[in-house]
Amino acid sequence: MTSDTAGPLASIVVPTLNRHRALARALASAMAQEGLAAGDYEIVVVDNSPDANARALVAPLAAHGPVAVRYVSRTQPGVATARNAGIAAARGRFVAFLDDDEEASPVWLASLLGTAERTGADAVFGPVAARAEDGREIGALGAFFARRVAAATDADVTRLHPFLGTNNSLFSRARCLAGAAPFDERLDRTGGEDSLLLARLVRGGARFAWCDEARVTEWVPPTRTTWTYVRRRTFLSGQVRTFVHAMSDPPRHGAVALWMGIGAAQFALCGAASLLLRPLDATRAAALAARARGGLGKLLWTERFRAGLYATGFVSHAR
User: Residue 166 burial by CB count (10 A; 0-12/13-18/19+): exposed, middle or buried?
Assistant: First the structure.
């Protein structure tokens, strides 16, 4: 694949909110991509802070960096709003998403593009590893931040779309991100906007592929390396599994019932196993308790039970 005269081949969109140290690391990795010419891609930073506080960090990179870097301020807080602003500013035929707490491997973007070219897939996804920011071993907590798929590079993973997400992804802009707001901004606080988009794309006939070489690392800050945070995260993830079907047009009531049934079984089985293991293995018991909370989220998915993780202060905002 090569870029054309109308613009770069790909745009890397990096939404950010008050995480300057993490953002600097993410941007350094994005600018150090190998196997591509500097003009083949651009980086779009979407600053979702009310006071545009990432501007000072991005400005020198935009002026002197080896890759085109553009800054977008979107002061209305919300994860879907920030992603939509990045898409609107992007000029590439493909749009890749990198979270501000992630670090991309050197061949990340070239690998995603290679899979897109070979397979003709509408979107490509890659693995996410998890490491603790403070240098400690992340241990059993890492499984709740990582993404692993037992698939070879270029394999079709369309059926796995409920377990994928935009953290480490590449989309054909024309086929996947048309329209003014591809991500549903009703989900600005809770997240799940990516799961809803993927479900809509699959119902429309989109195909997704996997690229095992397109690796990123999510650096998890101390505020998230607790079982309290993980339980809240898994509860919300469980809710997302169910409510994306309720938000479908038309709503998919059968799928809602199915996921609620799965959630009831998960809550009962994992909860019981957690209680039994607690005196013997506290770590495994804590992991099972978190998975039980995920099951409970699948049951208690309605809006009255949703507590936001985004734009509320619960997500780490350390600069």
Answer: buried
Instruction: Note the pTM of the prediction, 2 decimals.
Output: 0.93
Phi, psi of 169 (to 5 degrees): -155, 160
Instruction: Say how many Å lie between the first and final Cα of the chain, rounded.
Output: 37
Q: What is the pLDDT of residues 71-111, one digit of tens each?
A: 999 998 899 999 999 999 999 999 999 999 999 999 999 99
Task: Identify the bridge partners of residue 103 per DSSP, sorted by sequence position.
Answer: 217
| Other CB atoms within 10 A of residue 21 CB | 15
Q: What is the structure's pLDDT at 64?
A: 83
Contact criterion met (CB below 8 Å) for 236 and 223: no
Q: Where are the beta strands (DSSP E) in the chain?
A: 10-16, 41-47, 68-73, 94-97, 102-104, 123-125, 128-132, 169-172, 208-210, 216-220
Using DSSP's 3-state secondary structure scheme, residue 268 falls into helix
Provide the 10 A C-beta neighbour count for residue 75. 11
b/e map of 26-36 (b: 16 or more CB within 10 Å)?
Answer: bbebbbebeeb
For the record, the structure tokens of 100 come out as 């501000």
Pair 77, 17: CB distance under 8 Å: yes
* Residues 207, 197: Cα–Cα separation, whole Å: 13
CA-to-CA separations, 233 to 182, 237, 260, 282, 317, in angstroms, rounded: 24, 6, 18, 20, 16
Task: Quote the DSSP letter at residue 100.
Answer: T
**Residue 235 and residue 291 in contact, taking contact as beta carbons nearer than 8 Å:** no
